[in-house]
Amino acid sequence: MSEPKAPTPTPAGDTYKGWLFKWTNYIKGYQRRWFVLSNGLLSYYRTQAEMGHTCRGTINLATANIAVEDSCNFVISNGGAQTYHLKASSEVERQRWITALELAKAKAVRNQAESDDSGDECPTSPPTSGQGGGARNSNSEVQSTLRTLGSKVEDLSTCNDLIAKHGSALQRSLSELEGVRLGGDTDGKIRQVTERATLFRITSNAMINACRDFLALAQAHSKRWQKALHSERDQRIRLEETLEQLAKQHNHLERAFRGATVLPLSQSNPALNSKSSGSAKGDASDEDDENEFFDAMEDPAGFITVPADPKYHRRSGSNISGLSAETGIDDQSLCDEQSLGSNPESPQSLEVEPVRKRRTKIPDKPNYSLNLWSIMKNCIGKELSKIPMPVNFNEPISMLQRLSEDLEYYELLDKAAKCQSSLEQLCYVAAFTVSSYSTTVHRTGKPFNPLLGETYELDRLRESGYRSLCEQVSHHPPAAAHHAISERGWTLRQEISLASKFRGKYLSIMPLGSIQCMFEKSNNHYSWKKVTTTVHNIIVGKLWIDQSGEIDVVNHRTGDCCHLKFAPYSYFSRDVARKVTGVVTDKEGKAHYVLSGTWDEKMEFSRVMQSNKGENGTEGKQKTVYQTLKAKELWKKNPLPEGAETMYYFSSLALTLNESEEGVAPTDSRRRPDQQLMEAGRWEEANAEKQRLEEKQRSVRREREREAQRAANLPEEGAEGVEVAEDGVHQDNYEAMWFERTEDAVTGESMHVYKGGYWEAKDHGNWGMCPDIY
């Protein structure tokens, strides 16, 4: 053992160093450690080289007790939270350490009392010139705390190993004791059990003390860390706001530069130039009042929007003529734009008294904990396709009802049917496309998979002017057909099947198939597809949903197109979350409208007055600069009902989807027993009923496959019912009740189209042809 550097104890303000033996655990015993006494703190390291980076433990002498055990051993205890059993190489060395420790403790207690008195007398104030040193001290304190916590975790790990070791030994001794007969060796076995029980008790107490020590440290520093975290968060917010202001200033300067060089629109109108030169002061004030500047928007679609030249905002006769000559937009189109935002004849402004009062509440979602073992024990020995998933992952509506929820904002199609311009109509159809995703932002529950032949009707003819019908037309692969028709001149149809990929942390759901919308008055025929839905934090964390991808809404009659882009969420992006951007172009590729917003809140559109190719973007792509008028609101999400968080975050429409109605088909989703039981909160019964329905469906499918096999062995004219996909995958040998597969004459796509007969059957109550699926 080497001697300390100082031959005699030094004052506590100075550093005292030396080697001591420290008790570690019952396996390793005493271990040689390098101790450093400085500023009232006793720290130790494994070697002298560790002093610069790794401290194994620190004890504050201001609250410590120092006790001498024998000639070489002494103990330093910090109220039970920390205890160091130390041993010096000689009695002289031990006395030097005891003296140094006592002096350091006295000075530490005195300094602490003085610090408390000064803290009570003087109010705290933010540091001025000494901020740098304060930051360094704070960082050093955090590092010291982290090292101490790391040491405690290491102690916990050691205690855990010891408890496991001594517990096993004690168990073995107890087992041996049971087999020992009363005799001479009984005393020895009992003594052995007693010794091992004593060791187990000591290690258990050490574990308890270590846990208490760690908990005390964590509680002592948690408030300080929370405060530091909030401070860092506020600082980050201020930094983001500063960056946003800088970006706005940069965009303003960029617009001013382009207005002077790239966009010399004022030079093309001599009448406006002469007016400007004649009364410069008056026009300057007019520009302040009329030309509303907006933040330049650089979005993933690869374009930038800037406010249009002030002359486009004026409604004088000379300006209108100049505008028509330059942009080719007629007066009627301009008038239509002013009326788009508030159409007095739009269905939204008409107050129609509903013929039936719909429900506004369903039973609250039970707070059932999911027992994974209760699921897994029922899956042993079963095929993966036959494992029943519990309703804990579901919401009490089916996929057919989810498709019907696309009509939540049917008013957009009502407005589109009234538009005189096909380009304006395309804006509303695009907004309707985006609005169908607004109900998914909080809906992490999985809808029930429809049974083959299951249907769902949504009859809102007297209330909202439309009626809708869905049917599950295939089970392998699963596919649903949807048809909706409105008295206000539009028809919507779609056939959707789902493909999913599990990628570890998230689940990607890719809807396959297309959606079509036809307008009776204009004969415009639109089609589009859905984007990818991603469910994040499948394994660990809170589930959240994102929509990403691109959509082309195409008018097949005129060739107009709206290209929408759903930006995926990125933690590093300064754009708003769930952002959607789009551009409406004619068949020549000329832009007429720019759309922007979010898929969970609202969409706006702006008329494009002129477009120019701007500078290259960040990725080397040339961005288009659109001069636009002031944005107007196309669509805004309706607020959720009160208490929606306890009702699966259902919208007002979704709350009514499972409400019982008279006269619906026996295959309607409202009649599905497991779904009704789940909504009522009886989940255990719902799980049993769901398993029964799935097994019944499998047996019906096996019988249908046997019939198809028998039909395949007949002559060629008798095998019409066997259906095989082009890729060779066997499909359900099932003929839909209300839909038939046809090829669309406009788009050329093959899809299930409503063939009629359902509403007539409902009027007559003739459901005899419906299968028994429940």
TrEMBL record:
Residues 229-256 form a coiled coil. Its main location: membrane. GO terms for biological process: lipid transport. Keywords: Coiled coil, Lipid transport, Lipid-binding, Membrane, Phosphoprotein, Transport. GO terms for cellular component: cytosol; perinuclear endoplasmic reticulum; plasma membrane. Residues 136-145, 335-349 have a biased composition (Polar residues). GO terms for molecular function: sterol binding. It comes from the Eukaryota. Residues 13-106 form the PH domain. Residues 109-145, 267-289, 304-357, 681-720 are annotated as: Disordered. It is a peripheral membrane protein. It is found in: Membrane. Residues 681-709 have a biased composition (Basic and acidic residues). Belongs to the OSBP family. This is Oxysterol-binding protein. The lineage of its organism: Eukaryota, Metazoa, Chordata, Craniata, Vertebrata.
